[in-house]
Design brief:
With 135 residues, the protein is mainly alpha-helical. Helix content is 62%, strand content 10%. The longest helix is centred in the last third of the chain and has 24 residues. The protein is flat and about 65 Å long.
């Protein structure tokens, strides 16, 4: 849902506040979501802004894992992994299933993996661009 309040503010009240390219500004305003959506998006990017959480997401994108295996894989304590998973679960980045006494974690949905893969692709493009400009 886009932010209608931005469009309301775009009605020129006098010539001093008129847009240079009003039609372009209206199209741009439609791309800006409401504040609640942007806050949620910001929180997701904050969560993905941590290298440990990114590593956990990448590991879980290929296989569901228990806390012990994630800890060994990333050379972290089980307590540290559990803490990160608790934060990630609250943001719906990961989910879990129980099998007896074991708890297995997995990504909540494919969107999380897609976000990370798009970021990886973007970083790869930046590196290629930097490498080609160094030549």
């Amino acid at each position: 849902m886009f932010n209608r309040s931005i469009l309301r503010r775009m009605t020129p009240r006098d010539t001093n506040t008129a847009f240079v390219h009003r039609s372009h500004a209206i199209k741009a305003a439609r791309a800006i979501h409401d504040d609640a959506t942007l806050m949620g998006l910001s929180e997701i990017f904050k969560m993905l802004g941590d290298i440990t959480r990114l590593k956990i997401c990448l590991a879980l994108s290929h296989q569901e894992l228990c806390v012990s295996d994630i800890a060994r894989l990333l050379e972290l304590t089980e307590s540290a992994v559990s803490h990160q998973l608790r934060l990630m679960k609250a943001m719906r980045l990961v989910t879990y299933r129980k099998e007896g006494k074991m708890t297995y974690y997995m990504l909540d949905d494919e969107h999380i993996e897609e976000l990370i893969q798009m970021g990886v692709k973007h970083v790869g493009e930046e590196r290629q661009s930097a490498d080609s400009s160094d030549r």
